[in-house]
Amino acid sequence: MKTKTRKSVVLLLLMTFVLCSCTTARPVDVPISRESIQSNIDLGDHLGLTLVDGRKFRIHVRAVTNDAIVGEEREFLFSDISEIERLEFDGEKTATLAGASLVFIAILVAVALSQLEGFFDNLSSD
After folding, report:
1. How far apart are CA 18 and CA 58, in angstroms?
2. Could you tell me which CATH number the domain at 24-89 has?
C-alpha cells in the first residue's frame, strides 16, 4: 500500500509540475481604459485578470467591446479590472521540463530495474 501511495504522490507532483510550467504570465503594461485595452488585447489571447475586489480569473478572449473584455463564460467591465496579464506558452520552459522529465524517468527505471535484479537473485538462491 505504501508503494502505491508513494507512486501516486510522485505522479501527481510530476503532473502538477508539467501543467504549471508551460505558460508564462506577463503583465500588460497599459492603463485600464477602452483605447489601451482595445489596442493591446487581441481576440484569442489568454489573459489573467485581477479585479478591483481581488478576485482573479483566467480567460480566453472572445471579444473586446467598448466597455468590457468578453471571455468564454462572462464579460469583465474595464472599470472592474485592476490588472491584466497575458498568459503565453513558453517553449523554452516546456523543452527544459520535458528533458528533465525524461532524465527523471530514466533514473526511476534504472532504480526499479536494479531492485528487480536483487529480487530475482534472492529467489534463485533459495
Report:
1. 18
2. 2.30.30
